[in-house]
Structure formats: C-alpha cells, structure tokens
C-alpha cells in the first residue's frame, strides 16, 4: 500500500507511461515479426507460382460464369434443403411425441459429429447401393443439395430450436387464446419471430455452406459442374502453376467477406433492439 | 348488443369442482363458480391464491386435473370438444399484453380474424378499425407494438380479443404491469365493455374498479373461494377473517410486514412463484 501522498514520479514511471511503453513494445515485436517473415519469403518464386497475370486472365470469364455460379448454386440449393429439413427436425425436437424428439436428437448428434466430407462420400456411394435403380433427381446438383442439406440441417435445427424457444411463451398462449391451433400458432406467430432472432446465425451457416460446397470435388463432376475449388485445382494442374488457386480463393472472399459484414450488421441491430 | 334479454337458466360460465396442481403444489382445491350472461365478476385475493390459474382454466390454457368447465353450454373439459373453436368465443387479456411484436397494430387484429375465422382481408380490416376506434386507438393502426405505451398496448390487446366477437372476456391482472398513470385508460375501456353487457371475469388488484364495476366479487385464498357476493359486501363488509386481513394489507401495505395468520401466509406464500410463473410465462 503506497500512501496517497506518495509522489508517483519518485518511483519511476507513471501508470500512463508504463502503458505507453508496453504498447510500444508490442507494436515493435509484431512489426518485426511480420517484417522478418516478409523478408525471408522468396517473393520472386511466390509471384511466379501464384500471380501469373497471363494464367489468371485465361481463367476469365469461366471462373465467374461457371465456377462461381456453380458454387453459389450448390450453396443455395444446399441451404434450401437444410432450411426445410432443419425446420422439420427443430419442430420434431420440440414435439411432445417422444419418438420424434428422440429421432431428431439422434439425427443432430450424427450429422454434427461427422465430417461433411464423409457425408459427401456416403451420398455418392451408399445411396446408389442402398436404393438400386433410383437416381437422386437433379444429378450432381441434387446430390450436392442433399449432402450439403443433410449437414446444414443438423446445425440449423439447433439454431431454429433455440430461436423458437427464445420467443416468449406468452406469444403462443395469446395465439391459442384467440383460437389458433398449435400448428397455426407456430407457423403464423412463433416461427416468424424466431426467424428474426436467428437471421444472423443462419447467415453464418450460409457462409459455412459456401465453403463446404468445395467438397463436391469428391463426388466426381463433369466439366460443366465444376465449382470454384475443383475449377481452380484442375487449372492449376493443367498449367503447373498455382495462380488459379489464388484466383479461386479471391472469388470465395468476394462473397464471404460481404456476407460476414452483413451478419455483424444484423447482430449489432438485434443488440440495439434488445436494449 | 344486450345479452341479458336472452338470459336462460343456464349460466354463461360454470365451473364445477375444479382442481389443479403444479407438481406437489395444489393451486386450485375445489372451485365452484357460476357466472350469468352479462355479469361482471372480479376475482381478488393474495398472489398465489390461484386466481390466475382459475382464469387460465376457464379457457383451458391450463388443463384442470379434475372438475368441469362449461362456457355457453359447451363443456370445454370434454376431451372430444374442439377447443380451438370453443376459445373463439372466449377473449383473453394478459398481464403482459402479449401483442405480436412483429406485426403492426392492425395486423395484430386482422391476422387472427383471417387465420382463425377465415374472414376476408377487407372484412377483417373493417372489424379491426371498428374495434381500434372502440378502445380509442384508431390513430395507432399502423404503429408497431413497441412504439406504444403499456396502456396503449393493453387496449390494443383488448381490441384484438374483441375483434374475434367473443361472448366472454377474461382479464388476467390487466393493469398490474402498467405504470400507475396508464391504468385509468385501460379500466375505462373495461368499464365500457361491462356497460355494453359483456360477460367478464377480471382478476385484479384494483379494488375501486371492482367496487364500482363488478356485479360480484369473489375472494380466493389458498386455492378455494372464501367469499363470493356483491362488492359492497365482500369489499365493504367482509365476513371472513382472511378477506379482512387481505383487504387491510392491500389498503395499508405497511401492515404486510407484520406476521399475519400463520396458516394464511403459509398457503399464500408457497404457490406464488408457480402461479405467477405460469401466468407471466
């Protein structure tokens, strides 16, 4: 305990000086580390391998009109399947019917616990074996929508369930007292409010799916069905150069960064609404 | 809209031998109650006495363990009865208003009419406007609930219930969540309804309202009806010690700090959480 009268300057640095010094030191260390990495890297070879203007130019317009388009298509169809299925599983999880709850719980545990890659392989191999003669409608597009949807549904079900439970119980009671059936009340009153609550996490799920769509690689696709990752990799091996990978990466970021921004905006707005 | 002229022998609402427990907590322990057409009944009593639970049993938001509830001759407790259809005839107003926050005031009134009664958009809008005017909020038709004061929200909630054309209205402590200066407007709307001949059960702590508007006052304590009679009798000259004790605490809250009858406080204190939790959700 130093006395209140003890002159701080006498002990050396003031609190503010100490803080400045510590922060300054951190900056120096950080900048030095980054600079060391930059200096050590062989920029010439990197540029050769990743930033060949000619190869990059050669990717256009297919990287957008074909690869990015397919990525978006796979993502949106997977999201749509996931949303419908996730909604169904969320409602089952909240059901008063025991077997429904049980099934939903098992589904969620399995599909959240498995790598998406395994599910893609499973859809590609096991489904044709299990149901010989049946084709998943839509060819590759249908398979991708199903595989991505199955994975997304498990995550979305938990998000939707949390959203439904976050709607005050009085809303359901008010609707019931007005003569709504339980299902009607759920659809007309509770779910619309739940979706406002879960819009940010659902958009996050969209970003995750967007990246997971690269797993299409393992289904075996035709030239026209290639999405960003496959497209970039194919071109990279053709040209023996990694520039296409970089271009594909930039294409992903072009979508995911703005989406992430939208999510943060929605979260900030939701936070404001709570206050 | 007078309903008295059609008064038959059958009461509008009849409750027979109603029991309800939440776990080990017996909230209702044998309630019998009859309410005639156009009658206004105020239910008073300490918190935890089972008033709200009784009200919520009348439209089966709570399922009674035993006993019967009949509204307009239909037995709601009959497992074969279409409860959604029966509830259309029973309006309910909650302590927490429970307006749909994602809808405008008008949409709050039109959605149930269209989804439940199958009314056309135009007809629902007309009925909505009519009832908003009735509670004095025609100018708030396009506002969202969050933009309204508590008193205004509660009046919208009343209008929403009225738009369904109920024969009976249940009020569950409609003014308890309001700032004191907003209580008057809500009570004025309820007074108007009573004057128009609506059959009403009002769970309330507003003694002056009960005294002025109610045809009958029911005092509940410990899950039973202790006293039931004209306001002047139950509030003005209570016969039971428990009623007197409750009223004197209400009029003079400072006295509540004193230990009351051990039996009465024991019963009243315990179920409070359960009943309030169920009511407020």
The number of distinct β-strands of chain A equals: 0
Biggest interface between protein chains, with counts per chain? A-B, 19 and 27 residues
Low-confidence stretches of chain A: none
Estimate what percentage of residues of chain A fall within beta strands.
under 5%
Shape of chain A: flat
Compute the number of helices of chain A.
11
Domain ABC transmembrane type-1 (chain A): 68-263
Subcellular location (chain A): Cell membrane
InterPro entries (chain A): AA_ABC_transptr_permease_3TM, ArtM/GltK/GlnP/TcyL/YhdX-like, MetI-like, MetI-like_sf
Keywords (chain A): Amino-acid transport, Cell membrane, Membrane, Transmembrane, Transmembrane helix, Transport
Explain the layout of strands and helices.
The complex is a heterodimer of chains A (275) and B (281).
Chain A: H1 15-40, H2 43-50, H3 53-59, H4 62-93, H5 98-113, H6 116-130, H7 139-166, H8 169-177, H9 182-212, H10 228-239, H11 243-274
Chain B: E1 13-22, E2 25-35, E3 40-44, H1 51-58, E4 66-71, E5 74-75, H2 83-87, E6 90-93, H3 105-117, H4 121-134, H5 150-162, E7 168-172, H6 183-195, E8 199-203, H7 207-213, E9 216-221, E10 224-229, H8 231-236, H9 241-251, H10 262-269, H11 272-280
Parallel strand pairs in B: 3-8, 3-9, 6-7, 7-8
Antiparallel strand pairs in B: 1-2, 1-4, 4-5, 9-10
Q: Would you kindly provide a written description of the structure presented here, covering whatever features stand out?
A:
- With about 280 residues, chain A is mainly α.
- Chain A has one domain: MetI-like (MetI-like fold).
- Chain A is about 80% helix and about 0% strand.
- Chain A contains 11 helices and no strands.
- Chain A has helices at about 15-40, 45-50, 55-60, 60-95, 100-115, 115-130, 140-165, 170-175, 180-210, 230-240, 245-275.
- In chain A, α7 crosses α9 (about 180-210).
- The longest helix of chain A is centred in the N-terminal third of the chain and has 32 residues, at about 60-95.
- In chain B, α3 crosses α4, α4 (about 120-135) crosses α5 (about 150-160) and α5 runs parallel beside α6.
- In chain B, a hairpin with a 2-residue loop joins β4 and β5.
- Chain B has a 6-stranded mixed beta sheet with strand order 6-7-8-3-9-10, with helices on both faces. Chain B has a 4-stranded antiparallel beta sheet with strand order 2-1-4-5, with helices on one face.
- Chain B is globular and about 55 Å long.
- Mean pLDDT of chain B is about 90; it is low at about 1-5 and about 260-280.
- At the A-B interface, α8 and α9 of A face α2, β6, α3 and α5 of B.
């Amino acid at each position: 305990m130093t006395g209140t009268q003890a002159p701080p300057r006498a002990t050396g640095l003031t609190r503010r000086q100490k803080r400045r010094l510590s922060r300054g030191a951190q900056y120096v260390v950080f900048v030095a580390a980054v600079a060391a990495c930059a200096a050590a890297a062989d920029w010439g070879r990197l540029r050769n391998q990743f930033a060949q203007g000619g190869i990059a130019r050669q990717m256009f317009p297919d990287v957008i009109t074909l690869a990015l388009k397919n990525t978006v298509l796979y993502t949106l169809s997977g999201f749509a399947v996931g949303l419908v299925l996730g909604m169904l599983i969320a409602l089952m999880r909240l059901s008063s019917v025991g077997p429904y709850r049980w099934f939903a719980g098992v589904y969620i545990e399995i599909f959240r616990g498995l790598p998406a890659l395994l599910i893609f392989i499973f859809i590609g191999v096991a489904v044709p074996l299990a149901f010989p003669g049946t084709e998943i409608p839509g060819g590759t597009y249908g398979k991708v929508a199903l595989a991505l949807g199955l994975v997304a549904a498990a995550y979305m079900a938990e998000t939707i369930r949390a959203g439904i439970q976050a709607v005050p119980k009085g809303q359901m009671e008010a609707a019931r007292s007005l003569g709504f059936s339980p299902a009607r009340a759920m659809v007309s009153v509770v779910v619309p409010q739940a979706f406002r609550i879960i819009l940010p996490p659902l958009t996050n799920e969209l970003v995750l799916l967007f990246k997971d769509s690269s797993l299409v690689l393992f289904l075996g696709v035709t030239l026209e069905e290639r999405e960003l990752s496959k497209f970039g990799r194919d071109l990279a091996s053709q040209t023996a150069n990694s520039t296409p990978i970089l271009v594909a990466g930039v294409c992903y970021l072009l979508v995911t960064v703005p989406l992430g921004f939208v999510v943060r905006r929605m979260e900030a707005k939701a936070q404001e609404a709570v206050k | 809209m007078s309903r008295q002229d059609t008064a038959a022998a059958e009461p509008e609402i009849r409750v027979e031998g109603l029991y309800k427990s939440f776990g080990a907590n017996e909230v209702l322990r044998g309630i019998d109650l009859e309410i005639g057409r156009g009658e206004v009944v105020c239910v008073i009593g300490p918190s935890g006495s089972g008033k709200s639970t009784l009200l919520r049993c009348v439209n089966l938001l709570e399922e009674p363990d035993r006993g019967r509830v009949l509204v307009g001759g239909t037995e709601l407790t009959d497992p074969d009865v279409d409860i959604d259809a029966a509830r259309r005839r029973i309006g309910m107003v909650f302590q927490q208003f429970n307006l749909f926050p994602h809808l405008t005031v008008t949409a709050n009134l039109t959605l149930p009419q269209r989804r439940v009664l199958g009314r056309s958009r135009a007809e629902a809008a007309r009925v909505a406007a009519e009832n908003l005017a009735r509670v004095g909020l025609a100018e708030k038709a396009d506002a969202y609930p969050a933009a309204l004061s508590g008193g205004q929200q509660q009046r919208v909630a009343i209008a929403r219930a009225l738009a369904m054309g109920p024969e009976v209205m249940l009020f569950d402590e409609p003014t308890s969540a309001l700032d004191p200066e907003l209580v008057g407007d809500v009570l004025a709307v309820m007074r108007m309804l009573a004057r128009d001949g609506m059959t009403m059960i009002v769970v309330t702590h507003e003694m002056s309202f009960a005294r002025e508007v109610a045809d009958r006052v029911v005092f509940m304590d410990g899950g039973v009806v202790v006293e039931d009679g004209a306001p002047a009798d139950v509030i003005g000259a209570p016969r039971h010690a428990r009623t007197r004790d409750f009223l004197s605490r209400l009029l003079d809250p400072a006295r509540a700090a004193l230990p009351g009858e051990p039996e009465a406080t024991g019963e009243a204190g315990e179920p409070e959480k359960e009943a309030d939790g169920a009511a407020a959700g």
